């Protein structure tokens, strides 16, 4: 199947599953997949390969290489903003899951506090600061770990960037009422 379509993500994931018992072959298969798949021609969710590769390192308690994989994945120009957002979100969530809150904040801020360009033909990577998924995650993080001021600033930035959803606005209003701001 991969000879017919080397950009077929699901077939690469099947191959990974077949070799999962042999770590060297597994590593080689992930490497072959990310070198072979053309992001613009990917058939399936390319983010799944990158996330699975990072999970491979995490399962082996190798955070340095897992972080390197996530970082490399965030440099890929995926077909959609949602796919790139999945990589960033997974990277953040994996750190939150083991209590590395400061690292999670550092990672998400790398994505959403990028300078927003006014250019019409931005790449997906350049456009990541406009990801509603990441802003929602960031706001949730601020609600759990931030202060009143940082929460207000996060909502205000969403409004400025025009990535705010009706649900975010309702949550912001509820937050302001709960904190006696309105």
Summary keywords:
Serine Threonine Protein Phosphatase 5, Tetratricopeptide repeat, 182 residues, mainly alpha, 66% helix, 9 helices
Tell me what you see in this structure.
The protein is mostly helical. It has a domain at 64-178: Serine Threonine Protein Phosphatase 5, Tetratricopeptide repeat (Alpha Horseshoe). Helix content is 66%, strand content 0%. The longest helix is centred in the middle third of the chain and has 17 residues, at 81-97. The N and C termini lie far apart (60 Å).
Q: Could you tell me the mean pLDDT?
A: 93
- Count the helices. How many? 9
CATH class of the domain at 64-178: Mainly Alpha
Which strand-content bin applies to the residues? under 5%
Summing up helix and strand content along with how strands pair, one would put the structural category as: mainly alpha
CATH architecture of the domain at 64-178: Alpha Horseshoe
List the quaternary state of the chains.
single chain
General form: elongated
Described by strand count, sense and barrel closure, the largest sheet is: none
Radius of gyration: 19 Å
Let me know the number of strands.
0
- Low-confidence parts: none
Give the termini separation. Answer: 60 Å
Summarize the structure.
The chain has nine helices and no strands. By secondary structure, it is an all-alpha fold.
Layout of SSEs?
Layout: H1 9-18, H2 23-36, H3 46-59, H4 63-74, H5 81-97, H6 101-112, H7 132-145, H8 148-161, H9 166-178
Helix pairs in contact: 1-2, 2-3, 3-4, 3-5, 4-5, 5-6, 6-7, 7-8
């Amino acid at each position: 199947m991969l000879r017919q379509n080397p950009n077929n993500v699901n077939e690469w994931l099947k191959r990974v599953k077949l070799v999962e018992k042999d770590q060297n072959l597994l590593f080689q298969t992930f490497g072959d997949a990310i070198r072979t798949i053309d992001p613009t021609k990917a058939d399936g969710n390319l983010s799944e390969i990158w996330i699975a590769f990072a999970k491979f390192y995490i399962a082996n308690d190798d955070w340095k290489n897992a972080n390197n994989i996530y970082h490399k994945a965030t440099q890929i120009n995926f077909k959609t903003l949602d796919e790139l957002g999945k990589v960033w979100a997974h990277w953040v969530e994996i750190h939150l899951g083991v209590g590395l809150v400061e690292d999670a904040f550092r990672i998400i801020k790398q994505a959403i506090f990028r300078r927003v360009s006014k250019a019409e033909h931005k790449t997906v990577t350049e456009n990541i600061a406009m990801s509603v998924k990441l802003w929602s995650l960031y706001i949730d993080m601020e609600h759990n770990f931030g202060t009143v001021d940082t929460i207000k600033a996060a909502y205000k930035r969403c409004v400025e960037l025009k990535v705010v959803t009706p649900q975010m606005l309702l949550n912001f209003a509820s937050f302001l009422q709960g904190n006696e701001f309105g």
